Amino acid sequence: MDIEGGSMMLSAARKKLAIYGMTLTLLGTGMWGASASQASAAAGMPMVVNSLTGPVTKEEIDSFKQYILSSSVTPPVSNLGNDFVYGPSGQNVEAMGYMYEISGDTEILDQMIRFSELMLSARNNPDTGRVLWNGNRELVWPNKKIGEVNSDGLVIEGYSGSENGDVIGHIAYSAKLILENKSIWNQVVPFGNSAAYGETYLQRAKAYVAELDQTIDTYMIPNFVKPDTLRQYWPEDPRWSTTGSAAPNTPIPWNQQMMMNNGFMRLAEAHELLADDQARVNLYDSIIQASIDWFTSSLQPYQVNGHEVYKWWYVADYFGKVEDADGVHAANDVMGMTRAYERGKYGVTLDTLMKLSNTIRYVISNGSGNFYCKVDGLPTTCTLTNLWSEYLHIAPYDPDPATYQLLANPYYMSTTLTSPIYFARVMWVKDHRSWTRNVDADLSPAMEAETYSSRIGRFTRAVCDSCFKGAYMQAPDDTASELTYSLNVAHGGQVYLHAFGAAGDHGAAPGGSFMVSLDGGPEAALPIQASDWGWTTVAQTFPLSDGLHLLTIRGLGDGARLDQVVLSKSATPPIEALQPKLTDLQVNGVSVPGFSPGTHTYSVAVPLGTKVIPTISATSEHVVEIAQPQDVFGTAVVTVKDRLDPYLQSKYEVKLTGFPIYGEVPDRFISFPIQSVTASAGYHASFPPSMAIDGDLTTRYAAKGTTQWIQFDLGDIRPVRSAVIAFLKGDVDRYIFDLQVSEDGTTWTTVYSGKSSGKTAGLEIFPFGAVNARYIKYNGKGNSKDTWNNINEMYIGGQRMDTTPPVTTDDARSGWQTEEQTVHLTAADADSGVAHTFYRIDDGAFAEGTTVEIETEGTHTLTYYSIDAAGNQEQQRTASVQIDLSAPRIVPTVTMSVYATDPVRLDFQITDAGSGVNSSTVTLDGQPVPLPYTAEPLSLSVGRHTVTVRASDQVGHLLQQTYTLQVNMDIEHLDEAVIYAKQQGWIRSEHTYTTMMVLVSVIQKASHSERFPALHALEKWLQAQSSKTIDAANANRLLEMIAPLQVK
Q: Which domain of life, per UniProt (predicted)?
């Protein structure tokens, strides 16, 4: 099968308007569209690439998030046309995985899980699904339409092949990312469990892995992997020829082997994280190893202008077709080799990757920005404008950025903004390529941990509201890892390293630490606070001379967190109480509202349309330096330096944003798109009515006179409640007007008469009572200065109806707990807000509250729901809470007093009403015995025996109880003892047996006083027969049995 093709989703860019300091999307002539939190209901805005180099920015992450959650990205439905492989659905899952690894944003992970589950659930049904080439309904993802015919006229609907490996790999990627983040394992996946893969993230990951292993075990390995060599071949079965693919028992092409390897590799990584099946990990790795070794051995090295490059073919053992550089062929080969290198298990060398990179740069590239169609550059008449994004995986391993620049060419970037996978791979390269920051050591440069130049290991980014830039980096708690910061230093000298961090928050031991080194020199310890966030300082200083340096921070596997690193010539860490402060902060000579010396970040709104950049000023008893904003809506940085220690500094940021709407904006405010506008005659030709709805506050509609009107058509009747208007010089002049509304454009109702405030040149809201209208008319009467009516912009406002119920979550711990449980309920409602939360335990009555105390043992069902202020009630949700406070219960089920001539049976009922019995042991006189235990007659000596029973439950409760087993003997049972001894062969002589029975009969019939001489006679007879007609050991057992009977 020749896997080719693919598609990109394109979305038209839209105009933007800044209000409230947020970016809001213009929809037609309306005011703005849904905010990011409702992005799923609207088309996505194009993603933002701030730069092809440097760290991934928050704006880039946010732009990807709003796009992937929007309606521009459609959920997976079926794998027809390989949609789950290299089509939009499969590639979107990959993109979300890359961006989650970069950002740590669980909303991106949740969307990835949604898509993965839809793909997994679309797998062929083994009972009712499609019958494949081998006559079976296999657990795979068919990619052909029912009745599909190839160019030879062959019906190929029964085909399903190597591409399944990529589907497995995409879904397993979700499981791997969950398993790498232990902090979310026991959290409930927020979008429900309709597919029944499990409530928690960990349950989901395990379910995905188990399901995917089934496909591997039942279809992929039996059909496509040779059992002797582990190489990947098409099936030997002659029925394979009916699929229209390659001939049976021939090698699978390299690009498709890399798809298979993707599935094997990510499942192996998942099992490693679960530590549940090392044999399976070894098998998957061995299959990949065989494939990588085979591919590497097929690469033909040669030189082009002194550069080592490779030539290779489409499939092993066939030299008639050079590998294609276009489409997914060589792209998959290159990506597969980089993944194998990153796994670190298959012997792929950096030298091999460099030669592949050279092949792209010096052979596939034609030197003019285009590319040849084959990996050997022939024929030169076939060229491409761009290569597939899979090639980008090679970029981090080539220190020369030329190949990266070729792959991220302008044509390519034109599609990146609306293709999640192209965008995410550019971000992935940025996150993996080293970059250098310029720092001035005299200015105590601060670096957010997440702005590293490169990283090794599983350092992850996480969101933190209290962090300096909203995020921090966390070392894994299972492996060592590194962050590297590349610095170009000016005004160097001896510097201290101060770090703001915290200990691990998901299972690490109290405290945490990193090791710090400069330019590969000796490492120094950086201890991290054992409790909350705080500053710590490396004990030694570092010689930071002018020029280039590499600062490396290495994790020690304890989950420590790092938010910010400061290099300073001051030994004093930038603890808030010790930092120099401002006493005032001003914009254009006016103090910033709400200024506080301890608050370092401000957002100040200025009127939209302002042309002059505002001036920032500040006062302090210390030295103040100000970097003014470079544009109207830029950011100013104010640095305060201690007079006695100028390297002890603090910084303030002032971000200038668009002026907010003046007046009280109601909850759930929305604007309705204006479809058209008309006006009375006499408006100024240079300022027509259309300028009142063009989304630009620097243009205007203008008409002179006290009877002028301008009318806005919503296109349909809407529940309107306000008008939002910006007037020319509205902060100086007050405009006089009426507002009228109409459903039909004929009958009008006045809803507002009055004046503007004269206090804002931006938008001002004019509310009125709720009314249904299609048309809104502004009747202008001039302003406080003249009779001109000047409207910069007009919007019609309403109130979003709240029809969505709140969402309530719980923090109940999964599994059995050994103490009473407190469960907290958290409810959220983006519209009218949460009004009430109710809960009940088991079948009890509902109570209102968000804190639930559960004190009794057993499995309890916590049912809860919330109601918002609009009366919307969510469906009841449940959580299982299991409490086990006590140890197992042990009860003997047999008598503990027996006669020596009876069989001895020991058995106990061991139960645990909570988590269940985990283990139990029984000892008899200190020796372990199984349950139930049975001993033959005469096997235990007469007297007391100690029986000890130990039992533990699943949560570790342990109970030990000791019992006494009493073995008895009396005159009446003597004959039974002799008979049993004869039956067991202890007595070998009939004469001895007869004599003993006669003696026993005498004993049993004798009076109490005559009994003891008879017992003595029996004892002497046994002693005489010992080792003769009765073996010595059994004779002694009989003697021990009768000894207690001789006690007078």
A: Bacteria
Cα–Cα separations (whole angstroms), residue 432 to 52, 340, 822 = 12, 16, 43
Output the six-digit token pair for 509.
Answer: 């031991």
* Entry pTM: 0.52
Count, residues in the chain: 1048
What is the CATH topology of the domain spanning 669-799?
Jelly Rolls (2.60.120)
Task: Please give, one letter per residue, the 3-state secondary structure of 501-559.
Answer: EECCCCCCCCCEEEEEEECCCCCEEEEECCCCCEEEECCCCEEECCEEEEEEEEECCCC
pLDDT, tens digit, for every residue of 882-914? 999 999 999 988 888 999 899 988 899 999 988
Q: Give 823-827's long-range contacts (Cβ < 8 A, gap of 24+).
A: 823/851, 823/852, 823/854, 823/862, 823/879, 823/881, 824/850, 824/851, 824/852, 825/849, 825/850, 825/851, 825/852, 825/864, 825/866, 826/850, 827/866
889-968: CATH superfamily: Immunoglobulins (2.60.40.10)
* CA distance to 445, 526, 776, 903, per residue, from 541 (Å): 15, 12, 70, 81
Long-range contacts of 371-380 (CB under 8 A, 24+ apart): 371/325, 371/326, 372/325, 373/324, 373/325, 373/326, 374/322, 374/323, 374/324, 374/325, 375/310, 375/311, 375/312, 375/322, 375/323, 375/324, 375/325, 375/330, 376/311, 376/322, 378/322
pLDDT given for residue 552 in this prediction: 94
Spans of all domains in the chain: 299-399, 436-568, 584-662, 669-799, 807-883, 889-968, 973-1045
Q: Which fold has domain 584-662?
A: Immunoglobulin-like (2.60.40)
